[in-house]
Amino acid sequence: MTAISTTPPSISMDSLVERLKQHLPEARLVTDPLRRLAYGTDASFYRLVPSLVVRPQTEQELRSVIEACREGHWPMTFRAAGTSLSGQAITDGVLIQLGRGWRGAEVLDNGARIDLQPAVIGARANELLAPFDRKIGPDPASIASCMIGGIAANNASGMCCGTAQNTYMTLDSIRVVLLDGAVLDTADTASVEAFRKSHAVLLDGLERLAAGVRTDVELARRIRHKYRLKNTTGYALNSLLDYRDGVDILAHLMIGSEGTLGCITRITYHTVPEPPRRAAAMIFFPDLGSACRATIALKGTGVAAVELMDRAGLRAVERQPGMPEHLRDLPSGATALLVDVREQDGDTLAARIDDVNQALEGIMTLEPVTFTEDPVSYALYWKVRKGLFPAVGAVRDLGTTVIIEDVAFPIERLEEGVAALTAAFKRHGYDDALLFGHALEGNLHFVFPQGFERAGEKERYQALMADVAQLVAVEFGGSLKAEHGTGRNMAPFVELEWGKEAYDLMWQIKALFDADHLLNPEVMLTRNPTLHLENLKPLPEADAIVDRCIECGFCEAVCPSRELTLTPRQRIVLTRERARLANLEQPTDADRERSEAFGRTALYDIDTSCAADGMCGTRCPVGINTGELVLAMREERHVGKQQLARRIGRHFSGVTRVARSGLRGASVARAVIGDRLMATASQGLHQVSNKRIPQWIPSIPAAAPIRVLSSVAQVGEGRDPVVYFPSCATRVFGADKRDSSARAVMEVVLALLDKAGYDVIIPEMPGHLCCGMPFSSKGMANEATHKARELNRELLAASHNGRVPILFDTSPCSQQVEQHLDARLKIQEPVAFAHDYLLPRLDIAPVESKVAVHVTCSSHRKGLTEAFIALARACAKDVVVPEGISCCGFAGDKGLRVPELTASSLQDLAGQVVGCEFGVSNSRTCEMGMTEHSGLTYHSILELLDRASQPRGVNS
User: Fold this and answer.
1) Within 583-651, where are the H helices?
2) Does the pTM of the predicted model rise above 0.70?
């Protein structure tokens, strides 16, 4: 074990697991060696493999886990999203993950406060507050992925947060579980009073430490100085000056304590305003010095953010898609400041911009200062800034990691601090380091690729860190960790930054809460001077598709299998581990155990349970679609089945005909034996066949009425033509038989197009055509390409070489074919076509129903989320968009072959659509999955449009 305490666990891991089985289901006690490795990975460049991963879902379960670990002397670490960068969320003891069961959120006092549990994603909290023009104070760059537990436990800040709006400063109340199992809820008077009686020794100890600090003039001065800066190095000693009551001190010590004093199970924030008007300027200066002087000049102007980017950083992103072209022409020393201004109204915003211009008078800029309120330009500026860290990850040498350090200088010494920092980089040979950060607070990040495999690299990194620590903490009186948390990375340097007296004070705080060092040992405080050089994460070359991954975890929140098996990050971790094991000459026992596990469980975890929906690529800062890795694995595994795929593709019309016959047969059987017996029999066949036979589910619809396509006839002159391509899913699956008012998608589309005044052209051989997705999703890439080319040929003919637009009725199909079709073809996704072309041609009377909307993963990826919701709101007076469901997990036929994937992805759906009359989406198979797990019937959104519309001018 890595714990500071030399006392080993008093019980074996097997004994601990047996005890925990009395309190938690075995499925939430993870002992599998591969899953322990995958689940134990965080965003830092350190690696420890937990001996056990536990997933409690209630506070009582959490207390039981803590009690068992405490009594068995097993060290434990609490984890939410695992996006932290300093190694504070890893352990080789017991990893306690707070996910499902910890996502409660409640807006209070019309948005003035918000009550949150630790597994709520930060961006979700802000979504709930948006109607009130409020947000939580912390705004880390990872806010779309990181969770409240980590935001609070690290006292994370961000771009606009500064020191005034972090968790410490905006804390209203907190609920914590301590090592002895005690619960303190500072919002509950009874809880506080009971805690005062039961934990008088702890509270007296904290109050005694606070009294000592107040009488030590020099120490008090040092603490006040440290916290006028951004500072997350060590414990929040400012709590000893800011508060006298032990409960208040305890509550604020928990902020930034990185799980070393207890576990935060609920926190209530005072929220901050989110002004609706905003503008930004990207201002270029000839050198770093002038940019730093400009930052100091801007300090008193009330701007929301000032983000510094050096020339190396701008160079790293200048050739990425969407970046301004003039970045390439900047001189070698140029430095940019992104200045962001936010206000309640236009007049105040203009006045603030005038203040900025006046503050910058006399400071040379390379171009005139120009602010923009244009949302596209505004987003582009921030894209430049946020792209700096991942840009290094995308271009680093294979086998190297990306290190991001996080320091703060007193703002008045920013210019000389930056110069000294830059000189240190060059002195140690880090010429490729990027410098950027939240300059308004003197908070700078420096990012560089680092390998540890070559001789001398670890020593070079050690020398750099020692130099930087001396420079920042001692010579400039700054912070070694401004906002990323101390973790393992800076634990050996805490005493250097704070001095012996303050450092000893931190050890006394730790002893009051956790004398045996069982809570996240070696994090924050350590006696090991080389801890930051140990347990470094290997990043071996594994596959070109994912080798650029920096394991940040941003992808995880949108993955449908995240609570069933693995996330994209975790799939990459195991792919890398398999590559590492394959190259070992002398494997350890643990290595051999993991090698054997790859043969038992890896196929299901990595491949079978992956929807390959590509949503991970929308969140990945370096653009990795882990689904492509999985599809490549399937192609390699199915190389012997290509001939079968070819035969199916060549007789595709017959295959879909057989599928419709099967649906008719299933309908007959269902009518005879009923849903319950049908499901039981189907499930039995599914299991006996090793999941080769798809599992029947009640939401499987009737067979589609394919004959409607043959009845299409052109109406006459004056009507615009459109080619309609019905997907194979809509040619097979008809309407839900349980809804007598429902119609097959093909019937709805044809009715809508006629109503909107279109002449419909159906391609030749519609029953034989396919976009190729059923083949590509199973790794049959050759046949997928053949079918796409076949479709391309027929669509060119039907559309007169692209002169006529082509409507696909299924969103995933329209996305699948984009890379294979002739550029002349104008492919229309159903939502985009309905929003842009059908709505203007129809009179809309929104239905009175409350409607649930599922935006498919393909629509998300095509940037159609807002258009999808807007279309639904145009057609229904009350629209509900369930939170946290980016992909339903049905993934073609996964919902029938791996039904547990869809069940896991949609486990929170039913509770979010209570009161809705029906749901809408734009993929027939997705609609089946949503129907199965919602208690509603889901239709095509085109059916909703049809219900709500009349031909233009009919009502008048």
Assistant:
1) 589-600, 602, 615-619, 626-637, 642-650
2) yes
